């Protein structure tokens, strides 16, 4: 995890704990200092059979982030204008073991939770040579999901990352075939989502973003090929990613690329 983020300008991991023992149902706490700026706190269990959850609270005890997915790793994030002492609670399930906990400070260019989530989601793909193609920034709306047609030529790959701000509750991404069949998705209970796809033959797909809550979201599309993505979208303004080539005018459908998620 650290290598892709350090490649994007994050500081090396600062270990809060390297080998802390924990048993199922136990809660351990650690104090960290975040700010000025943004930081990611990552935990990793010593065994894949363990489930590690993280909870991050401010100095008043108010929870600001949590990661309770059933897996052996977990991450929480925060941004603060001034140095602030925050408390990380670690809870273990599944089996006895140990965990490591580290803090990674974001570069100065990352100034919000949304930007931090985008960097975290796209860093592994950028390290593997994916380049930005399309960026959409818009307000979350309750009516209907955002949809965009995606054309993948044979051999092209795309990665899509969606990230909400602190008001967003849940963002889910789906890629569907023209008959509505699900191709790939990320529909966890988090205000961010990532998916990817590589095409062996030409594919015409529908990219869908479903959401709950309010606030704003960012949608980033990265690619390995020379596809073209339209920048217009109903109900939201969009813009090409900085440094991305202009959309090719010859395609009738927006196009992009896909690939299996990074390990």
Question: Could you give a quick summary of the protein structure above?
Answer:
The chain is mainly beta and 263 residues long. The chain has helices at residues 2-7, 113-127, and strands at residues 14-22, 27-34, 37-45, 51-57, 63-67, 73-80, 84-93, 97-105, 131-139, 146-152, 157-164, 168-177, 182-186, 192-198, 203-213, 216-223, 238-239.
Task: Describe the structure in your own words.
The protein has two domains: 2-105, Jelly Rolls; 113-239, Sandwich (Jelly Rolls). The chain is mostly beta strands and 263 residues long. Helices cover 8% and strands 50% of the residues. It is globular, with a radius of gyration of 19 Å. A hairpin with a 4-residue loop joins strand 12 and strand 13 (182-186). It has helices at 2-7, 113-127; strands at 14-22, 27-34, 37-45, 51-57, 63-67, 73-80, 84-93, 97-105, 131-139, 146-152, 157-164, 168-177, 182-186, 192-198, 203-213, 216-223, 238-239. It has a five-stranded antiparallel beta sheet, with helices on one face. It has a four-stranded antiparallel beta sheet with strand order 1-8-3-6, with helices on one face. The chain has a four-stranded antiparallel beta sheet with strand order 2-7-4-5, with no helix packed on it.
The level-1 CATH class of the largest domain: Mainly Beta
- Trace the largest sheet across and list its strands: 14-11-16-9-17
Counting DSSP H or I runs of 4 or more residues, the number of helices is: 2
What series of H and E elements makes up the topology?
HEEEEEEEEHEEEEEEEEE
Mean pLDDT rating? 84
Give a count of the beta strands, DSSP E runs of length 2 or more: 17
- Supply the helix-strand structural class: mainly beta
Flag low-confidence runs: 228-263
Number of domains: 2
